[in-house]
Amino acid sequence: MPDYTLKVRRFDPDSGEAAYWQEFGVGLDPERSVLDGILQVKDDQDGSLAIRCSCRAAICGSCGVRINGKSALACNTRISDAAARSPGGGSIVVEPMGNMPVLKDLVVDMDAVHWKKVQRVVPWLLPEGDPPEREYIVPAEAMIDVTQSMACIHCGVCVSACLSLEVDPEFIGPAALAKAYRFVGDPRDGQTEERLKDLAEDPHGIYDCTHCFACIEVCPKDVAPMSQIMRLRRRATGDYEIKDSNNGYGHEKGFTDIIEKWGTLHEAQLLPRSFGDGSMIKGQTEPGAVKQLVESLPTAARGLKAGKISPRKALLHPKLPDQKQVRRIFKTIESKEERLELNLYIVGELGEAEVEPEPDEEASPS
Ligand code: SF4
Ligand code: SF4
Ligand code: FES
Questions:
Q1: Domains with residue ranges and CATH for the chain
Q2: pLDDT per residue over 236-284, tens digit each?
């Protein structure tokens, strides 16, 4: 039976000592989990080692830790895989999850962060009017749309990995926002617009996510929290046109308009458009927008100094050589009566090609 070494971050608040590292050797079959290794340490070497766990089958969501720096469920991580990915092929490094206070050893305070944020998004249905005599009838497609967010087991692994939360602990965060989409996407809910306004106006809400993909990468249930956040944004901007004070609407509109026109990002226009609800004129004339523009000048100056942007490039932004292709995609998508949502969680057959070729492209040889 192979031997593995676990290097565990220990912390006991009652001892009055700072956190420290401790190594333990364990003997386990390669297909066993990191959690099995930790439980073997508890059984055979040190019963005081604290870890929260229950199902040992990636269902209860209680054994979230960081293994070699990456947030994961300990019961869902093979010990041999963890050893292969350990720094320098040495000890498997096991730490408590990030972005949450440590209570003891590998146990973090989920109430203080994760559950508090879930409560923040009102995690229950708010139907309008009298309930029907029998059950609510919901279209199957609507339920398919929210199935992915319903798969969450509230392990907090995405919360631990979230880079925005590291910078802004007030950010509502990936798990709670995925939960919010579960109700925003449910046709039985009567507060969709109010929920979206609330999440768009909150400076720590849907526009605080930086699209780093970390939550998608670590989630053991493929909830893809970032995709749920993007769905919330699409609903807020595309369906309800919520012009929020965080400039989320303006940024998205400015960004897509620029890409439609130039095919690549015209950085010099993005800021004024973002501050002007997507409009270049409003962004340069409306007092509130001008004030924000002036406040951003030091950032623009730093970009110039670092060579990220040149005055020539800022003023004469070139179009993408094959800009026609980009416009064609916009035209095809905008000609649809309903917005197409690609829910990658539900795998199925694609229908006919969604992007129709232009007549002159059909005629040209391939
Ligand atoms: S994609 Fe957004 S929510 Fe997900 S981890 Fe990154 S910043 Fe956090
Ligand atoms: S979204 Fe995924 S990683 Fe985040 S709490 Fe839910 S199951 Fe865990
Ligand atoms: S012990 Fe239940 S998810 Fe790991």
A1: 3-108 (3.10.20.30), 111-239 (1.10.1060.10), 248-315 (no CATH)
A2: 998 999 999 999 999 999 999 999 999 998 888 998 999 999 999 998 8
